[in-house]
Design brief:
The complex is a heterodimer of chains A (about 250) and B (about 100).
Chain A lengths: L6 H15 L1 H10 L4 H11 L2 H12 L4 H11 L2 H13 L3 H9 L3 H8 L4 H33 L7 H13 L6 H17 L7 H16 L15 H16 L5
Chain B lengths: L1 H24 L2 H4 L2 H24 E2 L2 E2 L3 H14 L4 H19 L1
The chains are: A mainly alpha (about 250), B mainly alpha (about 100).
Chain lengths: ~250, ~100
């Protein structure tokens, strides 16, 4: 199978474009939160896990300390350890490939790989989505940061509203059943209740503690909360349609 | 402020990579328990919900009810209508800017 005929490659590419593009919103929100363009670019290059990056700048933007931002980002990244374990077992990589794979192990690359059936396709899906997002996410972060820097007063452009929308959009795909909705409401309520009594940024960590305790006692489906922001399954039909049209045209594409 | 923020950025990045790498390095059975998977999931939901609330309602150490609430509602409607991520973010910004313009 050539790369162009591989459904995993096409799905990975579509996911990379869709996810990479929203790096623009991260870049703009990060400078609006008070980080420099260089700090914003560093986060996308080095941290490279969208949720944690948004969390880090979200806490700073809300007046929180660097240590609170660090805590929120680190805790939101915990799910990547679960993804790493799954990818380790699925992709069977060795040495330096493993070290590279770790950096691009995120929601979307894991979900793209997990959606495929044989090992070659799983590997193609993982690397295409992972490396594709890494490149595009960094390019669009830089564009967003420079644009955001040029905009001036972030409030005038509603960038504080954009941050609210971004977090809700990251949360949304994970609210697939009654339990995650109840958990989300509980953590939002706890946050609002403690905002007036603890320093900025700390409410996030209190909510994380509530969520961890909830997870410990939960009896719900194991994978709740581990849904990707952009679901590769949505791109599968499009890939299959294209595949079919290639076959019908005699496979000349 | 700037130097110490750089320190936290680098430290958080090291921890982010280490967290990903842990999955590849430790024996699967260490992480393969229901509690670990569940807590990874509930942490994700809880933190994102908390970040949404904080960004919508906090003004330093006080609560505020302003244009950002309009952004929250507009984003929720956009998500119900299955608008893409970037579309939702733009709608959130437009809503906040719009409400602020109207309120003066």
């Amino acid at each position: 199978m050539t790369l162009r005929q591989s459904p995993a490659f096409r799905i990975g590419l579509s996911i990379a474009v869709a996810t990479g593009l929203y790096g623009v919103s991260f870049g703009a929100l990060s400078v609006a939160a008070g980080l420099t363009v260089a700090q914003t670019i560093a986060l996308s290059l080095l941290m490279f896990t969208g949720g944690s990056q948004f969390a880090f700048v979200g806490v700073i933007g809300g007046g929180g300390t660097g240590s609170a931002a660090f805590g929120a980002a680190a805790l939101l990244g915990v799910r990547n350890a679960v993804y790493g374990m799954q990818m380790n077992r699925m992709l069977k990589l060795d040495g330096w490939r493993k070290a590279m794979a770790a950096q691009v192990t995120i929601d979307e690359s894991t979900a793209t790989a997990a959606g495929q059936k044989d090992l070659d396709e799983q590997r193609r899906g993982f690397w295409t989505a992972g490396v594709g997002i890494f490149i595009l996410w960094n390019v669009f972060t830089a564009i967003g940061a420079v644009l955001g820097d040029a905009l001036g007063d972030p409030r005038k452009w509603g960038l504080d509203g954009a941050a609210v929308a971004a977090f809700l959009a990251l949360l949304w795909p994970r609210l697939s059943a009654r339990e995650p909705v109840a958990l989300a409401v509980a953590c939002a309520l706890v946050t609002v209740l403690v905002i007036p009594v603890v320093p900025p940024g700390v409410p996030i960590l209190i909510a994380a503690f509530v969520a961890a305790v909830w997870g410990w006692f939960s009896r719900g489906p194991e994978r709740e909360g581990l849904e990707p922001d952009i679901d590769p399954a949505k791109y599968e039909d499009a890939a299959h349609d294209r595949e079919r049209s290639v076959e019908e045209s005699g496979g000349q594409a | 402020m700037s130097w110490s923020l750089w320190t936290w950025i680098l430290l958080a990045s090291v921890v982010a990579y280490a967290t990903k790498a842990v999955g590849y390095l430790v024996p699967p059975r260490w992480l393969e328990n229901e509690h670990m998977t569940r807590i990874a999931g509930t942490l994700t939901i809880g933190l994102l919900a908390s970040l949404t609330a904080m960004n919508a309602f906090s003004a330093g150490q006080a609560l505020a009810f302003d244009a950002r609430f309009g952004a929250l509602m507009a984003a929720a409607v956009a998500l119900l209508l299955r608008v893409s991520f970037l579309g939702v973010v733009i709608i959130g910004a437009a809503a906040a800017a719009g409400f602020r313009l109207v309120a003066g």
